[in-house]
Amino acid sequence: MKNSQKKQNVSGADLGVLLNTPAVPMRQPRTTRTTQTIGQILAAAERVFAEAGLAGATMAQLAAACGLPKANLHYYFGTKEALYTEVLQTILTLWLDAADAIHPAASPRAALTAYISAKMAHSRTRPYASKVFANEVLHGAVHLRSYLGLELRRKVDEKAVVIEGWITRGLMDPVDPRHLFFLLWAMTQTYADFDAQMAAVLAVPSLGSADFAVGEALILRLVLRGCGLGHDLKGTDR
Amino acid sequence: MKNSQKKQNVSGADLGVLLNTPAVPMRQPRTTRTTQTIGQILAAAERVFAEAGLAGATMAQLAAACGLPKANLHYYFGTKEALYTEVLQTILTLWLDAADAIHPAASPRAALTAYISAKMAHSRTRPYASKVFANEVLHGAVHLRSYLGLELRRKVDEKAVVIEGWITRGLMDPVDPRHLFFLLWAMTQTYADFDAQMAAVLAVPSLGSADFAVGEALILRLVLRGCGLGHDLKGTDR
DNA sequence: ACAAAAGCTGACTAATTGGTCAAGTTATTT
DNA sequence: AAATAACTTGACCAATTAGTCAGCTTTTGT
Fold this sequence. Notes:
Two copies of one chain form a homodimer.
Chain A: H1 12-17, H2 30-56, H3 59-66, H4 70-77, H5 80-96, H6 108-125, H7 127-138, H8 145-168, H9 177-193, H10 195-202, H11 209-226
Helix pairs in contact in A: 2-3, 2-5, 2-7, 5-7, 6-9, 6-11, 7-9, 9-11
The structure holds a DNA duplex.
Protein backbone atom coordinates (compact mmCIF):
# COMPACT_ATOMS: atom_id res chain seq x y z
CA MET A 1 0.00 0.00 0.00
CA LYS A 2 3.02 2.30 0.13
CA ASN A 3 3.46 2.49 -3.66
CA SER A 4 5.05 5.58 -5.07
CA GLN A 5 7.61 4.19 -7.49
CA LYS A 6 7.99 4.73 -11.19
CA LYS A 7 6.71 2.30 -13.82
CA GLN A 8 7.82 -0.34 -16.29
CA ASN A 9 6.67 -2.39 -19.26
CA VAL A 10 7.07 -5.60 -21.18
CA SER A 11 7.23 -5.34 -24.97
CA GLY A 12 4.08 -6.80 -26.46
CA ALA A 13 6.13 -9.06 -28.75
CA ASP A 14 8.42 -10.45 -26.08
CA LEU A 15 5.52 -11.20 -23.81
CA GLY A 16 2.38 -12.48 -25.48
CA VAL A 17 4.20 -15.41 -27.08
CA LEU A 18 6.08 -17.02 -24.22
CA LEU A 19 4.61 -16.57 -20.77
CA ASN A 20 7.76 -17.65 -18.97
CA THR A 21 10.27 -15.56 -20.86
CA PRO A 22 13.13 -16.27 -18.48
CA ALA A 23 14.77 -13.04 -17.50
CA VAL A 24 15.32 -11.83 -21.06
CA PRO A 25 16.90 -8.41 -20.82
CA MET A 26 15.09 -5.93 -23.05
CA ARG A 27 16.81 -2.66 -23.76
CA GLN A 28 14.28 0.09 -23.80
CA PRO A 29 13.91 3.45 -22.12
CA ARG A 30 12.28 3.04 -18.72
CA THR A 31 9.26 5.27 -19.06
CA THR A 32 8.26 3.76 -22.38
CA ARG A 33 8.33 0.20 -21.07
CA THR A 34 6.55 1.29 -17.92
CA THR A 35 3.65 3.03 -19.61
CA GLN A 36 3.33 0.13 -22.02
CA THR A 37 3.13 -2.40 -19.21
CA ILE A 38 0.59 -0.34 -17.33
CA GLY A 39 -1.52 0.03 -20.44
CA GLN A 40 -1.30 -3.69 -21.00
CA ILE A 41 -2.39 -4.45 -17.45
CA LEU A 42 -5.29 -2.02 -17.65
CA ALA A 43 -6.48 -3.45 -20.97
CA ALA A 44 -6.38 -7.01 -19.68
CA ALA A 45 -7.99 -6.00 -16.39
CA GLU A 46 -10.84 -4.30 -18.24
CA ARG A 47 -11.71 -7.59 -19.88
CA VAL A 48 -11.35 -9.67 -16.71
CA PHE A 49 -13.37 -7.25 -14.58
CA ALA A 50 -16.04 -7.12 -17.27
CA GLU A 51 -16.36 -10.88 -17.31
CA ALA A 52 -16.13 -11.55 -13.59
CA GLY A 53 -16.84 -8.31 -11.75
CA LEU A 54 -14.68 -6.83 -9.01
CA ALA A 55 -15.38 -9.57 -6.49
CA GLY A 56 -15.28 -12.37 -9.03
CA ALA A 57 -11.97 -11.44 -10.57
CA THR A 58 -8.90 -12.83 -8.82
CA MET A 59 -5.45 -11.38 -8.91
CA ALA A 60 -4.26 -14.66 -10.39
CA GLN A 61 -6.73 -14.27 -13.29
CA LEU A 62 -5.75 -10.67 -13.79
CA ALA A 63 -2.09 -11.60 -13.81
CA ALA A 64 -2.61 -14.47 -16.22
CA ALA A 65 -4.65 -12.25 -18.53
CA CYS A 66 -1.71 -9.94 -19.09
CA GLY A 67 0.98 -12.58 -18.77
CA LEU A 68 2.67 -11.01 -15.77
CA PRO A 69 3.37 -12.42 -12.32
CA LYS A 70 0.87 -11.47 -9.66
CA ALA A 71 3.37 -9.53 -7.60
CA ASN A 72 3.93 -7.31 -10.59
CA LEU A 73 0.37 -6.03 -10.55
CA HIS A 74 0.70 -5.32 -6.87
CA TYR A 75 3.89 -3.46 -7.59
CA TYR A 76 2.12 -1.09 -9.95
CA PHE A 77 -1.30 -0.77 -8.39
CA GLY A 78 -0.97 -1.88 -4.80
CA THR A 79 -4.35 -3.51 -4.35
CA LYS A 80 -6.98 -5.14 -6.53
CA GLU A 81 -9.39 -2.37 -5.72
CA ALA A 82 -6.87 0.29 -6.75
CA LEU A 83 -6.42 -1.46 -10.09
CA TYR A 84 -10.18 -1.63 -10.47
CA THR A 85 -10.55 2.05 -9.68
CA GLU A 86 -7.91 2.82 -12.27
CA VAL A 87 -9.77 0.78 -14.90
CA LEU A 88 -12.94 2.62 -14.03
CA GLN A 89 -11.22 5.97 -14.30
CA THR A 90 -9.88 5.13 -17.74
CA ILE A 91 -13.40 4.33 -18.86
CA LEU A 92 -14.90 7.52 -17.48
CA THR A 93 -12.57 9.84 -19.35
CA LEU A 94 -13.43 7.94 -22.51
CA TRP A 95 -17.10 8.31 -21.61
CA LEU A 96 -17.66 11.97 -20.90
CA ASP A 97 -16.51 13.25 -24.27
CA ALA A 98 -19.23 11.50 -26.25
CA ALA A 99 -21.73 14.24 -25.45
CA ASP A 100 -19.71 16.91 -27.18
CA ALA A 101 -21.98 16.67 -30.21
CA ILE A 102 -24.72 18.25 -28.14
CA HIS A 103 -24.10 21.99 -28.21
CA PRO A 104 -26.38 24.98 -28.76
CA ALA A 105 -25.26 25.75 -32.30
CA ALA A 106 -26.02 22.25 -33.59
CA SER A 107 -29.39 21.17 -34.87
CA PRO A 108 -31.20 18.76 -32.54
CA ARG A 109 -31.44 16.22 -35.30
CA ALA A 110 -27.75 16.26 -36.17
CA ALA A 111 -26.67 16.39 -32.54
CA LEU A 112 -28.81 13.46 -31.40
CA THR A 113 -27.84 11.44 -34.45
CA ALA A 114 -24.16 12.03 -33.79
CA TYR A 115 -24.51 11.24 -30.10
CA ILE A 116 -26.34 7.99 -30.70
CA SER A 117 -23.83 7.01 -33.32
CA ALA A 118 -20.93 7.74 -30.99
CA LYS A 119 -22.46 5.78 -28.13
CA MET A 120 -23.16 2.81 -30.38
CA ALA A 121 -19.58 2.93 -31.61
CA HIS A 122 -18.44 2.71 -28.01
CA SER A 123 -20.64 -0.31 -27.42
CA ARG A 124 -19.22 -2.00 -30.48
CA THR A 125 -15.54 -1.19 -29.96
CA ARG A 126 -15.27 -1.12 -26.17
CA PRO A 127 -17.89 -3.58 -24.88
CA TYR A 128 -15.77 -4.52 -21.85
CA ALA A 129 -15.59 -0.93 -20.73
CA SER A 130 -19.35 -0.67 -20.87
CA LYS A 131 -19.75 -3.87 -18.89
CA VAL A 132 -17.38 -2.81 -16.15
CA PHE A 133 -19.27 0.43 -15.82
CA ALA A 134 -22.64 -1.33 -15.84
CA ASN A 135 -21.50 -3.79 -13.22
CA GLU A 136 -20.29 -1.00 -11.00
CA VAL A 137 -23.53 1.00 -11.21
CA LEU A 138 -25.58 -2.15 -10.75
CA HIS A 139 -23.87 -2.81 -7.45
CA GLY A 140 -24.56 0.63 -6.10
CA ALA A 141 -21.75 2.62 -7.74
CA VAL A 142 -19.75 2.73 -4.52
CA HIS A 143 -16.57 3.43 -6.45
CA LEU A 144 -18.28 6.06 -8.61
CA ARG A 145 -20.29 8.15 -6.20
CA SER A 146 -18.25 11.27 -6.69
CA TYR A 147 -18.01 10.91 -10.46
CA LEU A 148 -21.75 10.38 -10.89
CA GLY A 149 -22.74 13.09 -8.46
CA LEU A 150 -20.24 15.69 -9.64
CA GLU A 151 -18.68 15.36 -13.09
CA LEU A 152 -21.46 13.41 -14.77
CA ARG A 153 -24.18 15.44 -13.13
CA ARG A 154 -22.53 18.67 -14.20
CA LYS A 155 -22.21 17.41 -17.75
CA VAL A 156 -25.82 16.29 -17.88
CA ASP A 157 -27.04 19.53 -16.37
CA GLU A 158 -25.07 21.42 -18.99
CA LYS A 159 -26.49 19.36 -21.86
CA ALA A 160 -29.99 19.56 -20.40
CA VAL A 161 -29.78 23.33 -20.73
CA VAL A 162 -28.86 22.97 -24.39
CA ILE A 163 -31.82 20.68 -25.04
CA GLU A 164 -34.19 22.94 -23.13
CA GLY A 165 -32.91 25.77 -25.28
CA TRP A 166 -33.84 23.85 -28.42
CA ILE A 167 -37.26 23.18 -26.96
CA THR A 168 -38.01 26.80 -26.10
CA ARG A 169 -36.80 27.82 -29.54
CA GLY A 170 -39.36 25.38 -30.94
CA LEU A 171 -36.71 23.24 -32.61
CA MET A 172 -37.98 20.06 -30.98
CA ASP A 173 -40.87 18.75 -28.91
CA PRO A 174 -40.71 19.10 -25.13
CA VAL A 175 -39.16 16.13 -23.40
CA ASP A 176 -37.43 15.76 -20.06
CA PRO A 177 -33.76 16.04 -21.10
CA ARG A 178 -32.39 14.00 -18.22
CA HIS A 179 -34.71 11.08 -18.78
CA LEU A 180 -33.95 11.31 -22.47
CA PHE A 181 -30.30 10.74 -21.56
CA PHE A 182 -31.21 7.82 -19.33
CA LEU A 183 -33.00 6.16 -22.22
CA LEU A 184 -30.26 6.94 -24.71
CA TRP A 185 -27.68 5.38 -22.43
CA ALA A 186 -29.89 2.37 -21.81
CA MET A 187 -30.61 1.73 -25.48
CA THR A 188 -27.08 2.15 -26.73
CA GLN A 189 -25.26 0.41 -23.89
CA THR A 190 -27.59 -2.57 -23.91
CA TYR A 191 -25.86 -3.61 -27.14
CA ALA A 192 -22.67 -4.05 -25.15
CA ASP A 193 -23.97 -5.10 -21.74
CA PHE A 194 -26.63 -7.58 -22.78
CA ASP A 195 -25.04 -9.01 -25.88
CA ALA A 196 -25.29 -12.51 -24.42
CA GLN A 197 -29.08 -12.21 -24.24
CA MET A 198 -29.38 -10.74 -27.71
CA ALA A 199 -27.17 -13.37 -29.28
CA ALA A 200 -29.25 -16.10 -27.64
CA VAL A 201 -32.54 -14.60 -28.80
CA LEU A 202 -31.23 -14.02 -32.31
CA ALA A 203 -29.75 -17.52 -32.31
CA VAL A 204 -26.33 -16.34 -33.38
CA PRO A 205 -23.00 -17.04 -31.66
CA SER A 206 -22.34 -13.33 -31.18
CA LEU A 207 -23.57 -9.95 -32.38
CA GLY A 208 -22.31 -8.79 -35.76
CA SER A 209 -21.98 -5.34 -37.21
CA ALA A 210 -25.31 -5.86 -39.00
CA ASP A 211 -27.06 -6.24 -35.65
CA PHE A 212 -25.51 -3.02 -34.45
CA ALA A 213 -26.65 -1.27 -37.60
CA VAL A 214 -30.23 -2.42 -37.18
CA GLY A 215 -30.17 -1.41 -33.54
CA GLU A 216 -28.73 2.01 -34.25
CA ALA A 217 -31.30 2.67 -36.94
CA LEU A 218 -34.15 1.72 -34.63
CA ILE A 219 -32.84 3.81 -31.75
CA LEU A 220 -32.46 6.74 -34.10
CA ARG A 221 -35.99 6.29 -35.34
CA LEU A 222 -37.53 6.12 -31.87
CA VAL A 223 -35.58 9.07 -30.56
CA LEU A 224 -35.98 11.38 -33.55
CA ARG A 225 -39.68 10.69 -33.93
CA GLY A 226 -40.10 10.83 -30.17
CA CYS A 227 -38.63 14.31 -30.16
CA GLY A 228 -40.67 15.41 -33.15
CA LEU A 229 -37.69 15.34 -35.51
CA GLY A 230 -38.73 12.41 -37.64
CA HIS A 231 -40.50 14.15 -40.52
CA ASP A 232 -38.23 13.26 -43.42
CA LEU A 233 -37.37 9.74 -42.25
CA LYS A 234 -36.38 7.92 -45.38
CA GLY A 235 -38.06 4.58 -46.01
CA THR A 236 -38.23 1.61 -43.67
CA ASP A 237 -35.11 1.24 -41.62
CA ARG A 238 -36.26 -2.17 -40.68
CA MET B 1 -24.47 -32.08 -2.33
CA LYS B 2 -26.68 -35.05 -1.59
CA ASN B 3 -29.75 -33.03 -0.63
CA SER B 4 -33.12 -34.62 -1.03
CA GLN B 5 -34.88 -33.83 2.22
CA LYS B 6 -38.13 -31.99 2.92
CA LYS B 7 -38.32 -28.39 4.03
CA GLN B 8 -38.96 -26.15 7.00
CA ASN B 9 -39.63 -22.54 7.99
CA VAL B 10 -39.30 -19.88 10.65
CA SER B 11 -42.35 -17.70 11.30
CA GLY B 12 -41.71 -14.18 10.07
CA ALA B 13 -42.77 -12.73 13.42
CA ASP B 14 -40.53 -14.95 15.54
CA LEU B 15 -37.58 -14.29 13.33
CA GLY B 16 -37.25 -10.76 12.01
CA VAL B 17 -37.16 -9.29 15.51
CA LEU B 18 -34.57 -11.34 17.36
CA LEU B 19 -31.82 -12.87 15.31
CA ASN B 20 -30.72 -15.23 18.04
CA THR B 21 -34.08 -16.72 18.98
CA PRO B 22 -32.62 -19.47 21.12
CA ALA B 23 -34.25 -22.77 20.33
CA VAL B 24 -37.81 -21.51 20.69
CA PRO B 25 -40.10 -24.40 19.81
CA MET B 26 -42.78 -23.29 17.35
CA ARG B 27 -45.73 -25.58 16.83
CA GLN B 28 -46.66 -25.50 13.21
CA PRO B 29 -47.27 -28.02 10.51
CA ARG B 30 -44.03 -28.96 8.84
CA THR B 31 -44.70 -28.16 5.21
CA THR B 32 -46.05 -24.71 6.01
CA ARG B 33 -42.99 -23.74 7.99
CA THR B 34 -40.73 -25.22 5.38
CA THR B 35 -42.18 -23.37 2.42
CA GLN B 36 -42.19 -20.16 4.43
CA THR B 37 -38.52 -20.54 5.33
CA ILE B 38 -37.58 -21.30 1.77
CA GLY B 39 -39.47 -18.27 0.55
CA GLN B 40 -37.76 -16.17 3.15
CA ILE B 41 -34.33 -17.38 2.13
CA LEU B 42 -35.04 -16.77 -1.55
CA ALA B 43 -36.32 -13.26 -0.89
CA ALA B 44 -33.28 -12.35 1.18
CA ALA B 45 -30.95 -13.99 -1.31
CA GLU B 46 -32.47 -11.98 -4.15
CA ARG B 47 -31.49 -8.79 -2.40
CA VAL B 48 -28.01 -9.95 -1.45
CA PHE B 49 -27.22 -11.32 -4.90
CA ALA B 50 -28.52 -8.11 -6.46
CA GLU B 51 -26.22 -6.02 -4.32
CA ALA B 52 -23.10 -8.18 -4.45
CA GLY B 53 -23.43 -10.55 -7.40
CA LEU B 54 -22.89 -14.29 -7.25
CA ALA B 55 -19.17 -14.09 -6.54
CA GLY B 56 -19.45 -11.13 -4.21
CA ALA B 57 -22.16 -12.58 -2.00
CA THR B 58 -20.94 -14.79 0.83
CA MET B 59 -22.89 -17.51 2.53
CA ALA B 60 -22.42 -15.62 5.78
CA GLN B 61 -24.10 -12.53 4.26
CA LEU B 62 -26.90 -14.60 2.81
CA ALA B 63 -27.46 -16.29 6.15
CA ALA B 64 -27.42 -13.02 8.06
CA ALA B 65 -29.85 -11.47 5.57
CA CYS B 66 -32.54 -14.02 6.42
CA GLY B 67 -31.51 -14.48 10.05
CA LEU B 68 -30.68 -18.15 9.76
CA PRO B 69 -27.48 -20.02 10.47
CA LYS B 70 -25.31 -20.71 7.48
CA ALA B 71 -25.65 -24.47 7.74
CA ASN B 72 -29.38 -24.03 7.34
CA LEU B 73 -29.04 -22.60 3.85
CA HIS B 74 -26.80 -25.47 2.91
CA TYR B 75 -29.39 -27.86 4.26
CA TYR B 76 -32.04 -26.49 1.92
CA PHE B 77 -30.04 -25.62 -1.16
CA GLY B 78 -26.80 -27.54 -0.93
CA THR B 79 -24.48 -25.00 -2.51
CA LYS B 80 -24.37 -21.25 -3.02
CA GLU B 81 -24.67 -21.75 -6.74
CA ALA B 82 -27.76 -23.91 -6.34
CA LEU B 83 -29.38 -21.19 -4.23
CA TYR B 84 -28.43 -18.64 -6.88
CA THR B 85 -29.90 -20.77 -9.63
CA GLU B 86 -33.09 -21.07 -7.61
CA VAL B 87 -33.29 -17.30 -7.21
CA LEU B 88 -32.75 -16.89 -10.93
CA GLN B 89 -35.48 -19.41 -11.71
CA THR B 90 -37.95 -17.59 -9.51
CA ILE B 91 -37.24 -14.41 -11.42
CA LEU B 92 -37.64 -16.01 -14.83
CA THR B 93 -41.11 -17.35 -14.20
CA LEU B 94 -42.08 -13.86 -13.04
CA TRP B 95 -40.50 -12.48 -16.19
CA LEU B 96 -41.96 -14.43 -19.07
CA ASP B 97 -45.59 -13.60 -18.38
CA ALA B 98 -45.22 -9.86 -18.92
CA ALA B 99 -45.45 -10.24 -22.70
CA ASP B 100 -48.95 -11.68 -22.56
CA ALA B 101 -50.40 -8.31 -23.49
CA ILE B 102 -48.93 -8.77 -26.96
CA HIS B 103 -51.37 -10.98 -28.87
CA PRO B 104 -52.81 -10.77 -32.39
CA ALA B 105 -56.28 -9.57 -31.35
CA ALA B 106 -54.97 -6.57 -29.44
CA SER B 107 -54.24 -3.22 -31.03
CA PRO B 108 -50.53 -2.43 -31.28
CA ARG B 109 -51.03 0.76 -29.32
CA ALA B 110 -52.85 -0.90 -26.42
CA ALA B 111 -50.52 -3.90 -26.39
CA LEU B 112 -47.30 -1.91 -26.35
CA THR B 113 -48.69 0.47 -23.75
CA ALA B 114 -49.67 -2.42 -21.50
CA TYR B 115 -46.33 -4.16 -21.98
CA ILE B 116 -44.30 -1.07 -21.16
CA SER B 117 -46.46 -0.40 -18.16
CA ALA B 118 -46.04 -3.96 -16.90
CA LYS B 119 -42.28 -3.89 -17.35
CA MET B 120 -42.00 -0.56 -15.56
CA ALA B 121 -44.08 -1.96 -12.71
CA HIS B 122 -41.60 -4.80 -12.41
CA SER B 123 -38.70 -2.37 -12.26
CA ARG B 124 -40.45 -0.42 -9.52
CA THR B 125 -41.64 -3.32 -7.39
CA ARG B 126 -38.93 -5.92 -7.93
CA PRO B 127 -35.73 -3.98 -8.59
CA TYR B 128 -33.55 -6.66 -7.01
CA ALA B 129 -34.89 -9.29 -9.36
CA SER B 130 -34.00 -7.12 -12.32
CA LYS B 131 -30.52 -6.52 -10.97
CA VAL B 132 -29.81 -10.20 -10.40
CA PHE B 133 -30.88 -10.92 -13.95
CA ALA B 134 -28.85 -8.03 -15.35
CA ASN B 135 -25.79 -9.13 -13.44
CA GLU B 136 -26.14 -12.65 -14.74
CA VAL B 137 -26.47 -11.61 -18.39
CA LEU B 138 -23.65 -9.09 -18.00
CA HIS B 139 -21.31 -11.89 -16.95
CA GLY B 140 -22.13 -14.05 -19.93
CA ALA B 141 -25.37 -15.67 -18.76
CA VAL B 142 -23.61 -18.94 -17.96
CA HIS B 143 -26.45 -19.94 -15.65
CA LEU B 144 -29.10 -18.89 -18.18
CA ARG B 145 -27.91 -20.29 -21.47
CA SER B 146 -30.76 -22.74 -21.83
CA TYR B 147 -33.42 -20.29 -20.69
CA LEU B 148 -32.29 -17.57 -23.07
CA GLY B 149 -31.77 -19.88 -26.00
CA LEU B 150 -34.95 -21.89 -25.56
CA GLU B 151 -37.81 -20.46 -23.52
CA LEU B 152 -37.06 -16.79 -24.03
CA ARG B 153 -36.19 -17.22 -27.68
CA ARG B 154 -39.42 -19.13 -28.30
CA LYS B 155 -41.42 -16.44 -26.57
CA VAL B 156 -39.74 -13.66 -28.53
CA ASP B 157 -40.15 -15.52 -31.81
CA GLU B 158 -43.82 -15.95 -31.02
CA LYS B 159 -44.32 -12.27 -30.21
CA ALA B 160 -42.27 -11.25 -33.23
CA VAL B 161 -44.79 -13.05 -35.40
CA VAL B 162 -47.61 -11.08 -33.79
CA ILE B 163 -45.85 -7.79 -34.42
CA GLU B 164 -45.01 -8.72 -37.98
CA GLY B 165 -48.68 -9.54 -38.41
CA TRP B 166 -49.61 -6.04 -37.31
CA ILE B 167 -47.08 -4.60 -39.71
CA THR B 168 -48.33 -6.53 -42.75
CA ARG B 169 -51.88 -5.55 -41.83
CA GLY B 170 -50.72 -1.94 -41.91
CA LEU B 171 -51.51 -1.39 -38.24
CA MET B 172 -48.05 -0.07 -37.49
CA ASP B 173 -44.83 0.97 -39.22
CA PRO B 174 -42.26 -1.68 -40.06
CA VAL B 175 -39.70 -2.22 -37.33
CA ASP B 176 -37.52 -5.17 -36.44
CA PRO B 177 -39.58 -6.83 -33.69
CA ARG B 178 -36.65 -8.43 -31.90
CA HIS B 179 -34.63 -5.25 -31.69
CA LEU B 180 -37.76 -3.48 -30.55
CA PHE B 181 -37.87 -5.91 -27.64
CA PHE B 182 -34.21 -5.33 -26.88
CA LEU B 183 -34.85 -1.62 -26.62
CA LEU B 184 -38.01 -2.04 -24.58
CA TRP B 185 -36.17 -4.22 -22.10
CA ALA B 186 -33.26 -1.81 -21.97
CA MET B 187 -35.40 1.26 -21.40
CA THR B 188 -37.67 -0.23 -18.76
CA GLN B 189 -35.08 -2.23 -16.85
CA THR B 190 -32.63 0.65 -16.71
CA TYR B 191 -34.95 2.20 -14.13
CA ALA B 192 -34.20 -0.75 -11.84
CA ASP B 193 -30.63 -1.60 -12.81
CA PHE B 194 -29.13 1.87 -13.03
CA ASP B 195 -31.11 3.61 -10.32
CA ALA B 196 -27.87 4.59 -8.59
CA GLN B 197 -26.75 6.54 -11.64
CA MET B 198 -30.12 8.19 -12.12
CA ALA B 199 -30.42 9.20 -8.50
CA ALA B 200 -26.95 10.74 -8.65
CA VAL B 201 -27.68 12.68 -11.83
CA LEU B 202 -31.05 13.85 -10.53
CA ALA B 203 -29.44 14.73 -7.20
CA VAL B 204 -32.00 12.80 -5.18
CA PRO B 205 -31.31 10.10 -2.59
CA SER B 206 -33.35 7.55 -4.53
CA LEU B 207 -35.85 7.35 -7.37
CA GLY B 208 -39.46 8.17 -6.51
CA SER B 209 -42.69 7.19 -8.20
CA ALA B 210 -42.69 10.53 -9.99
CA ASP B 211 -39.43 9.62 -11.69
CA PHE B 212 -40.89 6.33 -12.82
CA ALA B 213 -43.94 8.12 -14.18
CA VAL B 214 -41.84 10.55 -16.20
CA GLY B 215 -39.73 7.71 -17.50
CA GLU B 216 -42.70 5.60 -18.46
CA ALA B 217 -44.34 8.48 -20.29
CA LEU B 218 -41.18 9.17 -22.25
CA ILE B 219 -40.64 5.53 -23.17
CA LEU B 220 -44.23 5.31 -24.30
CA ARG B 221 -43.82 8.42 -26.41
CA LEU B 222 -40.65 7.20 -28.11
CA VAL B 223 -42.01 3.74 -28.79
CA LEU B 224 -45.48 4.72 -29.99
CA ARG B 225 -44.22 7.48 -32.24
CA GLY B 226 -41.38 5.28 -33.37
CA CYS B 227 -43.88 2.66 -34.48
CA GLY B 228 -46.13 5.20 -36.15
CA LEU B 229 -48.74 4.98 -33.41
CA GLY B 230 -48.30 8.42 -31.92
CA HIS B 231 -50.94 10.41 -33.85
CA ASP B 232 -53.29 11.36 -31.01
CA LEU B 233 -50.62 11.89 -28.36
CA LYS B 234 -52.21 14.19 -25.84
CA GLY B 235 -50.15 17.29 -24.92
CA THR B 236 -46.62 17.30 -23.62
CA ASP B 237 -45.91 14.38 -21.38
CA ARG B 238 -42.86 16.16 -20.24
C1' DA C 1 32.53 2.44 -14.08
C1' DC C 2 29.99 2.27 -10.11
C1' DA C 3 26.41 3.24 -6.89
C1' DA C 4 21.71 4.02 -6.34
C1' DA C 5 17.16 3.64 -7.90
C1' DA C 6 13.60 1.25 -10.21
C1' DG C 7 11.64 -2.84 -11.74
C1' DC C 8 10.72 -7.86 -11.26
C1' DT C 9 9.45 -12.28 -9.17
C1' DG C 10 8.94 -16.88 -6.58
C1' DA C 11 7.81 -18.23 -2.29
C1' DC C 12 5.33 -17.38 1.72
C1' DT C 13 1.31 -15.96 4.98
C1' DA C 14 -2.83 -14.57 7.31
C1' DA C 15 -7.55 -14.26 6.53
C1' DT C 16 -11.70 -15.47 4.36
C1' DT C 17 -14.90 -18.62 2.55
C1' DG C 18 -17.82 -22.62 0.89
C1' DG C 19 -18.95 -26.59 2.59
C1' DT C 20 -19.25 -30.65 6.20
C1' DC C 21 -20.65 -33.08 10.22
C1' DA C 22 -22.07 -35.00 14.46
C1' DA C 23 -25.02 -34.17 17.96
C1' DG C 24 -29.02 -32.10 19.11
C1' DT C 25 -34.35 -30.74 18.80
C1' DT C 26 -38.94 -31.02 16.83
C1' DA C 27 -42.55 -33.18 14.24
C1' DT C 28 -44.75 -37.27 12.30
C1' DT C 29 -45.89 -42.01 11.99
C1' DT C 30 -47.35 -46.36 13.78
C1' DA D 1 -45.38 -43.79 23.59
C1' DA D 2 -41.79 -45.20 21.05
C1' DA D 3 -39.44 -45.04 16.88
C1' DT D 4 -38.32 -42.67 12.98
C1' DA D 5 -37.88 -38.98 9.93
C1' DA D 6 -37.22 -34.07 9.33
C1' DC D 7 -35.03 -30.13 10.69
C1' DT D 8 -31.41 -27.12 13.24
C1' DT D 9 -26.94 -25.62 14.57
C1' DG D 10 -22.16 -24.57 16.37
C1' DA D 11 -17.84 -26.04 15.51
C1' DC D 12 -14.75 -27.45 12.33
C1' DC D 13 -11.87 -28.01 7.82
C1' DA D 14 -9.66 -27.68 3.31
C1' DA D 15 -9.09 -24.57 -0.32
C1' DT D 16 -8.69 -20.18 -2.17
C1' DT D 17 -7.14 -15.57 -2.19
C1' DA D 18 -5.17 -10.75 -1.48
C1' DG D 19 -1.26 -9.10 -0.16
C1' DT D 20 3.93 -9.23 1.48
C1' DC D 21 8.80 -9.57 1.16
C1' DA D 22 13.58 -10.55 0.43
C1' DG D 23 16.55 -10.98 -3.04
C1' DC D 24 17.41 -10.58 -7.73
C1' DT D 25 18.16 -7.98 -12.41
C1' DT D 26 18.06 -3.92 -15.22
C1' DT D 27 18.33 0.93 -15.93
C1' DT D 28 19.79 5.55 -14.71
C1' DG D 29 22.57 9.22 -12.81
C1' DT D 30 27.10 10.97 -12.04
